[in-house]
Amino acid sequence: EKGGYEHFMMKEIHEQPKVVADTLNSVLKDGEIDLSGVGLSAEEIRNISEIQIVACGSAYHVGMVGQYVIEDLARIPVRVELASEFRYRNPILDKNMLVIIVSQSGETADSLAALREAKLREIKTLGIVNVVGSSIAREADNVFYTLAGPEISVATTKAYSTQLIAMYTLAVQFAKIRGQISDEQYMGYIKEMQTLPDKIRRILEDKERIQWFASKQMNAKDVFFVGRGIDYAICMEGSLKMKEISYIHSEAYAAGELKHGTISLIEDETLVIGVLTQSALFEKTVSNMVECKSRGAYLMGLTTTGNYNIEESADFTVYIPETDEHFATSLAVIPLQLMGYYVSVAKGLDVDKPRNLAKSVTVE
Ligand code: F6R
Asked: Which tens digits make up the pLDDT trace of 237-292?
């Protein structure tokens, strides 16, 4: 049942090209995005005043990416919040708001409670859900099904990747309907999204290199992930993967925040992983990385092919194929999933069932 892989997590990592393509294709019709299956009409999309994304864990990290992408493309204000915070906060919700709940299982107690809170206030809700017929899928006004298939490994990989694609298609379609992008840009974004499965496949072909690096780092005490903008959201996910399956303490930091406290934790050989997929922020993050290096850090850079000058500062670099920068998370997350996986394997840990964790958190 593991399809020849040693762990479900590795099997699921390798399923990503397919399930990303399946999820994208499920909302494409005649080469354009069609959200009628999701149940959002053009008029409803035009009337959205604001979007509130609510989720837990990795699904929350998808929400963070969604915030950047939707705001940048569709110019709709987006807030993103942890479900466990949202539900007890008496949030201010506008009647023309759209509340998006992201959940693989569709059963996460806090996410479900947040959905019910929104419904109680008669706010339109959209669930991005993987499990058909789950509570969130049944109760949300609209459902965007991710087609990841059953995810067994406790640490999410393929569901996360399909949730990202769902976010991108919403962003691109909202942008088109609200007149924020031209037809040409619209078709360009769709075409670019269609290249992602193949680019993910290419990254996976190089996994041995990550395995080698991960086995060298298996005794790390702390790992810091730093990035700006979308790259910060990617760092959050990379850091969670590292903690949950490798049991290495890690933190994700918005790179500009380092000097407001965290940099005091950098010692000789501390691993700092810089994520640099956003060209406008590249130099800024590099200079934060260099600050860490001058305090003894060992630097890994994760950046787009072509940014070779990273090698002037980084001790080890992983390149991902070029893509539109809005969609770079789909590629950058892959080496970080592999890092978490291979460190866990090198340490002989139970990769698919890390201690103290459950696949679906149905109690708060
Ligand atoms: C991390 C992970 C969790 C889930 C979170 C939400 O790898 O899997 O952080 O993302 O528990 O679960 P769902 O998406 O089922 O609501």
From this structure: 999 999 999 999 999 999 999 989 888 889 999 999 999 999 999 999 999 999 99
Q: pTM surpassing 0.80?
A: yes
Instruction: Output the residue whose Cα is nearest ligand 1's atom 11.
Output: 57
Minimum-distance ligand 1 atom for the alpha carbon of 111: 16
Of 211-215, 257-261, 336-340, the least confident: 257-261
Q: Are 317 and 275 in contact (CB under 8 A)?
A: no
When pLDDT is averaged across residues 149-154 and rounded to a whole number, the result is 95
Q: Does 243 participate in catalysis according to the annotation?
A: no
Q: How far apart are the first and last CA of the chain?
A: 31
Identify whether the C-beta of residue 275 lies closer than 8 Å to the C-beta of residue 310: no
CA of 313 to the centre of ligand 1 (A): 34
Q: Which amino acid is at 17?
A: P
Q: Which atom of ligand 1 lies nearest, measured to the CA of 155?
A: 7
